[in-house]
Amino acid sequence: MTVLVTGGTGVVGRPVIRMLVESDRTVRGLARSEESATRLAELGATPIMGDIERPESLPDAMSGCEVVYHIAGLVSFCPADPSALYRVNVEGTRNVVQAARRAGVRRVIHTSSVAALGEKPGTVGDETTTHSGHYTSHYARSKHQGEQIALAEAGDMEVVVVNPASVQGAGRVVGSGGLLLQAVKGKLRLLVDSPISIVDAQDCAQGHIAAEQLGVPGERYVLSGFTISLREAWQLLGELTGKHYPVRFVPKPLLTLLGPIGDLVGSRIRAFPICRETIGLMRYGVRYDGSRAERELGLEYRTARETFARALDSFRASGLI
After folding, report:
1. What's residue 35's pLDDT?
2. How do residues 81-109 score in pLDDT, each as one tens digit?
């Protein structure tokens, strides 16, 4: 069975390709550059030059494929120009799903995000969440629109959606991974004690594979291994490294005052993107329930301790710490 993977060089795409290759699947990887093609070949995939933003490049890549894993996407907060988010996450998804349908692909696994769920602030999001109609960021809006398009353009083709929480794993140096990296480098001095839901990259990849094998067409599956407060994460980080990381926790009411000037504050801070988007997220935090994937897909999640330890190992192996 021939499978095409978009986004195969990313933090989720790499382990997905490895798992597919290990199961003796014939794997193609969509490559935007020669560098990406080389990395895909090293993973065991056959690189096919193409770009989800160029629909004319997709038919050859999908010819003869039974399954497409559409993992490619853009993650960006506080962008000066948000148009790239919509080109990649919305129109790129449209291009992939339309090309897959025309090529006779049987099933598409579409990588969305928990940001697409649109739960009300302070509540727990899951597959049954009705979108509140409010978007916390351009990223959230683009992922929600992309997910809707993936399902709307499916026709008689099977589309299964997975909604990962914040992914933590090798090569992840933005989002929660960026916070962790800045922490162990001693560059973070202020934090907000908000909850965050995380999934280990290996578990996320396994959830994709399970969604292909067991997922119900037209359904979504949240991939979230655990929810942890940033204060608890800080304590765990100290236990794993044997070091003390001094940090002050900012009172949440202060975030309300910072909201209107968030973009100005962010322009002065480089370690982590700060703007009205991220200030809103930090005020309430996020909580997601990934238990449906356990029940219906047989997914087993790693603990917070295991996930953080693996992330630290990857930082060391990459020379980042």
Report:
1. 97
2. 999 999 999 999 999 999 999 999 999 99
Question: Exposure of 58 by Cβ count < 10 A (0-12 exposed, 13-18 middle, 19+ buried)?
Answer: buried
Query: What type of residue sits at position 6?
Result: T
pLDDT at 48: 98
The predicted-structure confidence for 127-175, as pLDDT tens digits, reads as follows 999 999 999 899 999 999 999 999 999 999 999 999 999 999 876 766 6
Judge contact between 67 and 43, C-beta under 8 A. Answer: no
> From residue 227, how far is each of 28, 174, 200 by CA, in Å?
34, 18, 12
Report the SS3 class of residue 144.
Answer: helix
Residue 299 burial class via C-beta count within 10 angstroms: exposed 0-12, middle 13-18, buried 19 and up: buried
Q: Max CA-CA distance within the chain?
A: 56
* Domain range annotation of the chain: 2-168+201-224+287-300
Q: What residue type is 184 in one-letter code?
A: V
Nearest one of 99, 77, 133 to 6, comparing CA atoms: 99
Look-up of token digits 């968030």? 262
Q: Which residues pair with 3 in a beta bridge?
A: 27, 67
Tally the residues of the chain: 321
Record: fold of 2-168+201-224+287-300: Rossmann fold (3.40.50)
Residues 6+ away with beta carbon under 8 Å from 97: 70, 108, 110, 149, 150, 153, 154, 157, 159
Model confidence pTM above 0.85: yes
Instruction: Please tell me the distance from the alpha carbon of residue 42 to that of residue 303, in angstroms, as a whole number.
Output: 30
Instruction: Say yes or no to pLDDT of 125 above 70.
Output: yes
* pLDDT value for 186: 77
Give residue 250's identity as a one-letter amino acid code: V
What whole-number distance in Å separates Cα of residue 20 and Cα of residue 209? 8
Beta-ladder partners of 195: 229
